[in-house]
Design goal:
With 214 residues, the protein is α/β, with parallel strands linked by helices. The protein has a single domain, classed as ABC-type transport auxiliary lipoprotein component (Rossmann fold, 3-Layer(aba) Sandwich), CATH 3.40.50.10610. Helices cover 43% and strands 25% of the residues. The chain has seven helices and seven strands. Strands 1, 2, 3, 4, 5, 6 and 7 form a seven-stranded mixed β-sheet that branches. The longest helix is centred in the middle third of the chain and has 25 residues. This is DUF4410 domain-containing protein. Keywords: Signal. It comes from Arcticibacter pallidicorallinus.
Length: 214
């Protein structure tokens, strides 16, 4: 009986901690936001900068494979963001450039791997858009997927968290390169999460603050 009670207390504490972590968010709006957004017609979504770290590095860690995983996740989140916005396009005041076109143009301009070395107005000019959406996803893996799956089976998904991280999204004016809007959200990383689920969770929090919402 005591063991069951202790287990219940531990699970409840974890749920409370996860909930508080998930609620951590920050929103920034520039005084120039409304004036600038009113002139925007086409917006591009850039690949999201992605960093995956480990509380304890796996024994079979492969650096090259790790870098490839980060790059794949960067374009996966970009694609998920585009899909989400396209699906709800009637809710927004602008059009969003197809991400395949965005990435082709970035490659032609030699910018696809140098986005952190150029200004956002330079990127917008190369893409022929009025603004760009840039983002960053960082996660630290704290538990093995196998361990999380066991927890999911035992407790029906309670506490099935493999890591923690954060997702940042920002809108930059294409003409000046100035940041107009920024959203930061702390995220729990579940074993069954996908980039689509990640974006859905974030955009539900963003919806009331997203600058292009009608």
């Amino acid at each position: 009986m005591k063991k069951t009670l202790l287990l219940f207390v531990l699970i409840s504490a974890n749920l409370l901690a996860f909930g508080q972590y998930e609620n951590a968010k920050q929103v920034f709006e520039s005084p120039k936001l409304k004036t600038a957004v009113a002139t925007h017609k086409v917006v591009a979504i850039l690949p999201f900068g992605t960093k995956i770290s480990f509380k304890k590095q796996p024994k079979d860690f492969d650096l090259e494979a790790h870098v490839q995983k980060e790059r794949a996740m960067a374009t996966s989140i970009q694609s998920s963001m585009y899909t989400f916005l396209l699906r709800k396009s009637s809710n927004y005041t602008v059009e969003f450039q197809d991400v395949e076109k965005t990435n082709v143009l970035l490659k032609k301009a030699g910018l696809i791997d140098k986005l952190d070395e150029v200004t956002k107005d330079e990127v917008a000019k190369a893409l022929g858009v009025d603004a760009v959406i840039s983002g960053k996803f960082e996660t630290e893996q704290t538990r093995s997927e196998a361990g999380a799956i066991v927890t999911t089976v035992l407790f029906g998904g309670i506490g099935s968290k493999t890591g923690s991280g954060s997702l940042t999204m920002a809108v930059y004016n294409g003409q000046s390169g100035d940041m107009l809007w920024r959203f930061f959200k702390a995220m729990n990383d579940g074993v069954f999460s996908s980039s689509d689920e990640l974006i859905d969770r974030m955009m539900r929090k963003v919806s009331r603050n997203f600058p292009y919402s009608k």
